[in-house]
Amino acid sequence: EDVDADLLLRQADQAMYQAKLSGKNHYEFFNLKQNDMLIERYEAIKNIKKALAAEEFVLYYQPKVNMRTGAIIGLEALIRWQHPTKGFLNPLEFLPLIADHPLSIHLGEWVINTALIQIEQWQESGISLVVSVNISAYQLMKENFVKRLSSILSAHPKVNPALLEIEILEMSRLKNVFRSSEIMIACKKLGIVFSLDDFSTNYSSLTYLKQLPIKLIKIDQSFVKEMLHNSNDLAILEGIISLATAFGHEIIAEGVETIEHGELLLQMGCELAQGYAISPPMPSEEISPWVTSWVNPKIWETQTSKMKTDLPLLFATIEHQTWVDSVYSLLSGKYSFAESLDHTQCSLGKWLENEGFKRFGENRYYLDIKCLHYKIHHLASELIALYMQGENFKVSQRVGELHHLQDELSLLLKKLGEITKS
Ligand code: C2E
Ligand code: CA
Ligand code: CA
Fold first, then answer.
1. Distance from the CA of 281 to the center of ligand 1, in angstroms?
2. 61 closest CA partner among 225, 215, 290
3. Does 275 sit in the ligand 1 pocket, CB within 6 Å?
4. Would the CB of 204 count as within 6 Å of ligand 1?
5. Spans of the chain, pLDDT less than 50
6. Which residue has the CA at smallest separation from atom 4 of ligand 1?
7. In whole angstroms, what is the distance from residue 16 CA to residue 92 CA?
8. pTM strictly above 0.90
């Protein structure tokens, strides 16, 4: 309790100092806001300490699979708080409140310990799966991390340390790459495997990829979520996948919410996945029944990854589909059009003119595709013009045509994509 009061005072001091710096006018408002935040943090620290003692925390486990083979490759442990009055709380509702506080380290050690107990229980019932735990960069960089970890491990001598994986959160805070790499190498000697969580592309992530002894990188789920509709995110995803492959790391996508996401990831060469399409996180006792009943979607097992040269067609197809979707939205009054309606701006149109022509100009589908694509843009412009004139009835009579043409185009594009494989 003393430590907390002390921290509170120091932070209050700093808040005051900052408030003064930011000028007289801001002073009171700023001071009040800071004060609220400090009180909230102070309360959270007190409550989480109590909850830890009262054993109100529990780990849920979410499976990770290889989508091509259906193999279950591991489980991620995710913390939950069974709060006596507020009910079931997700980590983002309470962890940020104790970020960088020594208590977050106690909680982190509780997570490692609980995961090891669970691994041991599973081992005894014949389930041997890798379990990953989330560890903040703050915790990893603490001087005694390796010592603490090895003492927790030695309290569970029956557990093979290779079954414990650490997902490093907020890697941008691993400021000193050399030191982080030293710590990780020491942990690796204990048998621990590392992955980088929430990986995205920025300048510093490249340094980490090159220098840290990691096995796996986890693609940030924001890219995965958007990839079916946003070709920029798809391009970033492609970049991450090639980078990881170039550095010899495995790669896993999280936030795989639908079978379709999985299909596209497989086409892009990413086989490992985690997400609601496979299973939500579940309590430990549900894992064993899940493992026995898991059936990999058939369509995943038949996907093959596209060659680099086939990706532009995939991208263009998605961009065109997104464009058609926004036409539908506009026509149903849901959306005001911000993008260009010019079909020469369409990346599928560009692809058809240039690369597509060179590669498939002689193909029997090529002309049909080109013609359909043109018709779709033409019809869309007509419908939009009608819509602007308030002719909603006429629009509703003809919008089915657009659906029909687009379905036909999708089918032919798919066929074209399949030709390139054989
Ligand atoms: P994360 O490590 O990126 O974990 C993945 C999060 O995505 C989890 O949220 C999971 O339930 C959720 N998720 C899984 N599949 C899907 C999907 O298909 N769609 C969507 N929209 N979400 C999906 P959760 O459990 O709420 O955890 C949130 C974050 O809290 C984690 O993000 C991690 O950063 C942190 N966290 C969780 N457990 C721990 C822990 O024990 N220690 C620490 N330090 N952080 C933890
Ligand atoms: Ca994670
Ligand atoms: Ca993540």
1. 9
2. 290
3. yes
4. no
5. 1-2, 27-30, 422
6. 78
7. 28
8. no
> How high is the pLDDT of residue 293?
97
Say how many Å lie between the CA of residue 254 and the centre of ligand 3.
7
Ligand 1 atom index nearest CA of 167: 2
pLDDT score recorded for residue 346? 83
pLDDT (0 to 100) of residue 28 = 47
Is 406 exposed, middle or buried, given 0-12, 13-18 or 19+ CB atoms closer than 10 A?
A: buried
Question: Ligand 1 within 6 A of 198 CB?
Answer: yes
Question: Residue 332: its pLDDT value, please?
Answer: 84
Protein residue with its CA nearest to atom 30 in ligand 1:
91
State the distance from the centre of ligand 1 to the C-alpha of 62, rounded, in angstroms: 9
Question: What is the spatial distance between Cα 416 and Cα 403, in angstroms, rounded to a whole number?
Answer: 20
pLDDT value of residue 246: 78
